[in-house]
Specification:
There is one protein chain. The chain has about 375 residues and is mainly β. The protein is about 5% helix and about 30% strand. It has one domain (about 5-345): Pectate Lyase C-like (3 Solenoid), CATH 2.160.20. The strands form four sheets. Strands 2-1-3-5-8-11-14-17-20-23 form a ten-stranded parallel beta sheet. The longest helix is centred in the first third of the chain and has 7 residues, at about 35-40.
Length: about 375
């Protein structure tokens, strides 16, 4: 069970100023009209790109810093971001969220049925879309997209403790060098949560923890990966690090632990939908159940037994051609998960309450 910072759940739809004693920042399109209430709360902290807000955050915050992405976005935010200018804490954390019309509807922008007004961070230069070096940051309800072909670029590259990625769409639009959707690397990085996300189209892995550059003894514990949908990854056909949800360790002094529940990882090319790899793979300890794999390649080092994987060829997604990975009423993922409300994340990617606890990012609503 998560505790402290990681058990805090933010319900951001229609709740613009719901964090007590916070300092609020706004990111809105050029020309956005602020109401009197918004002007009063945001003051001069109004920006047009997420990167410009990151540069304006307090170096040593004395309150929570809440970044609300608002308005109607008919053009992408095109500046990639390195989060390294502030030192948040469990009390004075950073929350980055898209709300109202700026929030996606669980379908990648540009596809049939998607919210055409939603915010999307799709950089025009090479590099990681989000490089996260500061701790205690939550990203909620944001879509990021990779369009540039650099070298080993990632959607989120995490090198800090206590990071939450919740209800996000993490997509690659290119077939080469867009390496991993969410890549976690660095010694002593832990308490990481990825939940209710759609991760799609990455060159190597959808989500991966990799520890292979450090020496000495260290641990990465308190990690949670739950109710994610990961698909169409490993176009590079990487047989070592490619796949859906992949854990890798080559450090003899490491201890890596993670809870893995209710995920759907399917149709990832020539690789495990779930994988454990590296010369020190025995240092990786996974706990979980009720995960779905698309094939038998998930049976790596006994991992399928540890995660109680169910192998299926289809879960009845609504429209795979147009990247709508919500599930149909007939889906075998519907109501087939385990209740993980104890972790504090009991709403799906569309912010609907989980009542029957299905598998994947979407909870079918009757």
């Amino acid at each position: 069970m998560k505790s402290g910072f990681l058990s805090r759940r933010f319900s951001s739809i229609g709740e613009e100023f719901n964090v007590r004693n916070a300092t609020y920042f706004a990111v809105a399109p050029i020309g956005y009209h602020y109401s009197d209430k918004q002007t009063n709360r945001y003051s001069t902290r109004k920006y047009n790109t997420l990167a410009s807000v990151e540069n304006a955050l307090a170096a040593s915050p004395s309150t929570p810093q809440v970044i609300n992405i608002i308005g109607e976005w008919f053009s992408d935010d095109t500046t990639r971001i390195v989060w390294n200018d502030t030192t948040p804490t469990a009390t004075n954390y950073t929350l980055v969220r898209a709300i109202g019309s700026a929030r996606h509807n669980g379908i990648p922008k540009g596809e049939i049925g998607a919210n055409a007004r939603a915010y999307r961070l799709r950089p025009s230069s090479t590099g990681h879309i989000m490089q996260v070096d500061d701790p205690y940051i939550t990203f909620e309800g944001i879509e990021v997209g990779m369009t540039q072909t650099g070298t080993s670029d990632e959607g989120f590259r995490i090198a800090a403790n206590n990071i939450i990625i919740d209800k996000c769409i993490v997509r690659s639009h290119v077939a080469a060098e867009a390496q991993d959707g969410i890549h976690i690397t660095s010694s002593n990085v832990g308490n990481l949560t990825v939940t209710n996300c759609l991760v799609i189209g990455w060159d190597r892995a959808g989500i991966t923890i990799q520890f292979y550059q450090s020496s000495g003894s260290y641990s990465s514990t308190g990690n949670l990966f739950s109710n994610n949908t990961i698909t169409d990854c490993n176009s590079d056909n990487n047989t070592t690090y490619g796949g859906g949800l992949v854990f890798s360790c080559a450090d003899a002094g490491a201890t890596v632990e993670a809870d893995v529940y209710n995920n759907v990882s399917m149709e990832n090319q020539n690789s495990p939908d779930y994988g454990v790899t590296g010369s020190q793979a025995s240092k990786i300890v996974l706990t979980g159940s009720h995960n779905i794999s698309g094939d038998s390649t998930a049976d790596v080092d006994g991992m399928s037994n540890a995660l109680e994987l169910q192998t299926l060829t289809d879960v009845d997604w609504v429209d795979v051609v147009n990247l709508n990975y919500h599930i149909e009423a007939t889906s075998t993922a519907r109501g087939a998960g385990t209740n993980r409300s104890e972790d504090g994340y009991d709403t799906d990617i569309d912010n609907n309450k989980r009542l029957t606890w299905g598998r994947g990012f979407h909870e079918y609503q009757t």
